[in-house]
Design goal:
216 residues; mainly alpha; elongated
Length: 216
């Protein structure tokens, strides 16, 4: 698996995915729907899959002494690494936003602990829908991404709605004060748990789907 991951990073990674990591700087915009940062991250993943399809990466992998499930696992590891890298790069920009820009976000949630937790949930929804749908065919990308993007859009809207109607979310999760961010930790924990659990389920379902394909 170590060699496969080296191949994924050196050959499969698309440069635009690295560029989109810099869009974490959008968190410094005073009023902006910050979930869009993670939508760009998912768009970068889409470009990774598109580039590898055009380069016939699957057929190259078939020539290696590996199982089909290992091909899926390596790509899953790459996707998760891209998403975690986006989370990590968001942290310093969230700190800058909270400490040096003294204006509340008028169009969405603040860049805080709860936001990261809710973003993890959005990413796990993307992973489950896009990856399981993609590995049903091994080459169709547009429809799976359209489905995943639609669900992400509804999720972003729903997350902003519950931020204003559920008392706990309204009172504690739209704040950048240290005291309230400590109270937001359950949201972060829930997001991380769901991210890990759904990633495992998505991998299993994707690997099962891919095992059934005969692409040769």
């Amino acid at each position: 698996m170590k060699e496969l991951m080296y191949k994924e990073i050196k050959l499969s990674m698309h440069p635009v995915a690295y560029i989109f990591l810099s869009l974490s700087a959008l968190l410094c915009i005073p009023s902006y729907p910050y979930y869009i940062v993670f939508f760009y991250n998912c768009l970068g993943i889409f470009f990774v899959f598109q580039a590898n399809r055009e380069n016939r990466d699957i057929y190259y992998m078939f020539g290696l002494p590996i199982q089909k499930r290992d091909m899926v696992k390596a790509r899953f590891y790459l996707v998760v690494c891209i998403e975690l890298a986006q989370v990590v790069t968001c942290i310093p920009f969230a700190f800058i936003r909270d400490k040096f820009i003294l204006m509340n976000n008028q169009v969405g949630i603040e860049a805080n602990v709860a936001f990261i937790g809710l973003a993890f949930i959005m990413l796990c929804l993307f992973n489950f829908i896009f990856l399981t749908q993609y590995y049903k065919s091994g080459y169709k990308i547009g429809v799976p991404f359209a489905k995943a993007s639609t669900i992400m859009l509804f999720y972003m809207l729903g997350a902003e709605v519950i931020l204003r109607v559920i008392p706990y979310m309204r009172d504690y999760c739209d704040s950048v004060s240290v005291e309230n961010q400590i109270k937001q930790l359950p949201v972060l924990l829930l997001g991380v748990i769901l991210f890990i659990l759904i990633a495992f389920l998505a991998y299993k379902k994707s690997a099962d789907n891919f095992d059934k394909l005969d692409l040769l």
